[in-house]
């Protein structure tokens, strides 16, 4: 069946349901805010537990990345993301999900050529840029004094 682009667009428009954009935006805002609120609660908890103001944010980040990885491993994060959309992508847990998902998807190909190689397919450029930027920042800091 041959169709022009306009005919195909019309066919898709007729069969596609309406997107509840307002509802989707509210869910994304609510879930993203909930994740950020959890981060703030963890920060307060770690500060009250005796961590310094310098160390507590790092421990919060580690906790949220770990939580995102565990939830991804059990398939819960994907269920939340289906409902919340971009609300789960922006916070640090979205980064964790982006690392763990490909690693789980390609684990059948083996540890090295599957999980380890594919784990960095999405998040690799972010990690490389972050590492290079931190090295440059460190060198500049040492040179300045």
Task: Describe it.
The chain has 6 helices and no strands. The protein is mostly helical. It has one domain (21-144). Helix 3 runs parallel beside helix 5 (92-105). The longest helix has 34 residues, at 111-144. The chain is extended, with a radius of gyration of 21 Å. The model has no long low-confidence stretch (mean pLDDT 85).
In a nutshell, what does this entry contain?
With 145 residues, the protein is an all-alpha fold.
Annotation, overall tally of beta strands: 0
* Overall mean pLDDT: 85
* Uncertain residue segments: none
Number of alpha- plus pi-helical segments: 6
Largest sheet: none
Distance between the termini: 70 Å
Strand content: under 5%
The gyration radius over C-alpha positions equals: 21 Å
**What is the H/E string?**
HHHHHH
Estimate percent helicity.
over 70%
Give the overall form. extended
Structural class: mainly alpha
Count of domain modules? 1
């Amino acid at each position: 069946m041959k169709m022009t682009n306009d005919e195909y667009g019309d066919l898709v428009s007729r069969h596609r349901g309406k997107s509840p954009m307002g509802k989707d935006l509210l869910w994304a805002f609510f879930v993203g805010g909930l994740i950020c609120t959890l981060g703030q609660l963890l920060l307060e908890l770690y500060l009250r537990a005796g961590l310094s103001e310098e160390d507590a944010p790092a421990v919060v980040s580690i906790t949220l990345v770990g939580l995102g990885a565990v939830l991804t491993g059990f398939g819960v994060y994907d269920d939340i993301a289906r409902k919340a959309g971009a609300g789960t992508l922006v916070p640090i847990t979205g980064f964790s999900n982006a690392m763990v998902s490909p690693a789980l998807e390609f684990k059948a190909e083996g540890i090295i050529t599957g999980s380890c190689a594919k784990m960095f397919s999405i998040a690799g450029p972010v990690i490389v840029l972050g590492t290079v930027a931190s090295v440059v920042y460190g060198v500049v800091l040492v040179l300045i004094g």
